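Quick one, T. Sequence first:
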Amino acid sequence: MSQRYIKKILDARVYDVAIETPLTEARNLSKRFGNTILLKREDLQPVFSFKIRGAYNRMAQLSDEQQAKGVICASAGNHAQGVALAAKMLGIKATIVMPQTTPEIKVKSVRDHGAKVVLRGDAFDEAAAHAAGLVEKHGLTYIPPYDDPDVIAGQGTVAMELMWQFTQPLHAVFIPVGGGGLIAGMAAYIKYLRPQIKVIGVEPEDSNCLQAALAAGERVTLDEVGIFADGVAVKQIGEYPWEICKDAVDEVITVSTDEICAAVKDVFDDTRSIAEPAGALSVAAIKKYIEREQLQGENLAGVLSGANMNFDRLRYISERTEIGERREAILAVTIPERPGAFKTFIAALHKRSITEFNYRYSDSEDARIFVGVHVASGGLGRDELVQELRETGYSVIDLTDSDLAKQHIRYMVGGHAPTISNEKVFQFEFPERPGALLKFLMSLGTRWNITMFHYRNHGAAYSRVLMGAQVADKDVAAFQAMLDKVGFRYQNVTDNDAYWLFLGAGNGEN
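Structure tokens:
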């Protein structure tokens, strides 16, 4: 299967529009981890991602009749820009169907390349369904983002360049995975030319469609995918990519949101470029792999696949970087509610720096504080810190891995609500577009009283809300039926420790 792609990769038409991107050493990372870490700079392409390669190669194969009728794709991201620029270069009319949640920067970029943009639906599936209808109606040619042999071959030219740019021994190549077009094309070429090199896919922990497929021995569909690294948020690996990946990919490493944020910073420190979350996946995995294997003195390469970052997201990323580097511990600590208690607590930290401190008076006996503390790089001092505080007599709960605590609670620490009963707490994801928050609130109706609400816009396609409402136990099913009708993704987090420690209603009596 892989071998038949080699000729297609060698013959791929990409350089009419794409550039041969440099392979550069990340000197800071190399020095820090004791290995030579190389970055394949696909973020430097004309559309700031590798997607232009596959899109152009696919469209260059179209017949004169197909080119005359035009092309269409559904995409909220880099594929849309790749198709738009490729169409401009080839003189083909292009229609790009994008969800209404698509950030304006991406919509503008597509329009600037001369493509027609159609905004439809809140999610990719709705946009894709509308694009399929336009294909039938107008006879347009659909350009897939990854599940197509010519697209795969175009992406495979990344590996072709890498192999001639670095001829020394190479331990492994780390490749981000969404639908699988990039890793399929690269794996086919690498394993044909230098089969001893490990090909390692990288996915977010909450969007691991290739890892799940390899474990099952067949393509599987994830129930849902995470929204942070939107460039790789795909529920099922493509059919054509799977035929290659099942034999040519050595393993898949998954990384957390915090680890991705730390990798974005690593890329910036070494290149002064800002990778999008999906673009930084390979760096996050390289760090994780080196620590796992205790590797020294090897050559490792990773693909920086894209740099289409919405600037508003940098605030969120910078907040999560220290945790991603495991240099910060987030703790809930109970201290006595009396003068001098804070000073005593500071002494118990043994000169460790406090990065965050949140407190609100609750009762006359105990005070619960939400505190961030700087620990040794790699998290080596986190367990030690917790143990020291407990031995000193403090009650400590480690919230460093609690997404709810990092996403919402740290911004809401304000005390309990003793007069509120039957509070149920839910976390929502809803599409980020003008009027979405108002629509969300209006959809909730008037039967239940909202007791708590927290929302932050991070510049992503989707935002998260934490909401409390007074709902009697006997009415929970009816309340959730109403939420199902509203149609936003949600989960019941009423039992979450961070909520009960800092915000719980009725002083813990529900």
